Amino acid sequence: MNFFNRPPKKEEPPVSPSLAQKDVEVVVEEETSPLDALSLEEKFAKIEEVKKQIEELKKQRQDYFDHARQLEDKIRLQGVTEERMQKVREEILEGDKEIRETIETLRKDYDLDPKPEEVYAARIDMLTHELNRIQNNIAPEYRQIKDSMVSYFGSSKEPNRAKLQDHSTLNNFREYVIMKNSGIPEVADFYEKIKSLSLYEDNGKDVFAKEFEVFKDNIENAIKEKTLYKTEGELNEIYKKIDRLARLIDENIVQLREAEKKTGRFGDQSKYF
Does the structure show a pLDDT above 70 at 10? Predict the structure, then answer.
């Protein structure tokens, strides 16, 4: 082919004058903050107000989770399927959505990114709430009394008879266990019956031993009645969860201390801001 004898060049279609003359504008909207139009003093006051609002929303969110997780446990104990439990968990998360998104929006609008120590403090608070909720489901104050009975008398079911005749043991138990826990109804009832006894006398010791038999049964019954988890397997799982939560709290406390002191991986704080 002779490159000098090229085919005639095709003519381009004429451009419409209206299109050629039209200016195409791209409008980029800058994000604005509610703080932009405020003075420095007003900015400070508004930020303080919003931070308080966020804290109140966080409390509402925690109350919601406390209630929802308690219901979740009760539903699980009814023996429902894992598929149903998954739906329950999804429903709980959906119920939290509005408050969570409100908090996120406030933080975004007012440029309030939480500091590392605030994140860890919030996480510790959440874990502690969950730990307390679970512990309250196993009648902790009554179990503490039961543990004290074992400590003083060797057993809560079959106490050491010699210990029940030892005036020093009886006096200490009355003073350091019963008196200090007299806000518990069953303990208060027992205290009323033994508070005036002379535990140096055989008659006083005998009355104490008789009333103690009733008291230990009352404590055992209260534990059964007030414990949400009824089977040994359920209790074992709960004790494992309590241990796991306690470890997580300890780990986050360590991280919080490092964040507060700006040590460890928090030595360079610039990456957080």
Answer: no
My answer on whether 60 and 97 are in the same domain is yes
- Tokens representing residue 253 in the block: 């406390």
pLDDT of residue 177: 97
- Closest among 64, 47, 53 to 102, alpha carbons compared: 53
Q: Is residue 133 a part of any domain in this protein? A: no
Q: Which run of H or of E encompasses 100?
A: helix 82-109
Residue 158 CA to residue 143 CA, distance in Å, equals 16
State mean pLDDT over 38-49. 90
> Can you give the residue range of the structural domain that contains 215?
140-226
* 8 is a domain residue: no
- Give yes or no for a contact between 100 and 61, defined as CB atoms under 8 angstroms apart: yes
Residues 6 or more apart in contact with residue 92 via CB below 8 angstroms: 65, 68, 69, 72
148 and 100 both lie in a single domain: no
Number of domains in the chain: 2
- Cα separation of 273 and 265, whole Å? 15
Is residue 259 domain-resident?
A: no
Please indicate, yes or no, whether residues 144 and 219 belong to a single structural domain of this protein.
yes
Round to whole Å and give the CA distance between 224 and 156: 14
**What does pTM read for this prediction?**
0.75
**For 178-205, how does the pLDDT look when each residue is reduced to its tens digit (9 = 90+)?**
999 999 999 999 999 999 999 999 999 9
**Euclidean distance between CA atoms 113 and 119, whole angstroms:** 10
The reply to whether 266 falls in a domain is no
Helices 40-76 and 116-136 sit at what angle, rounded to 10 degrees?
30
Q: Answer with the one of 61, 95, 113 that is the final residue of a domain.
A: 113
Residue type at position 171: N
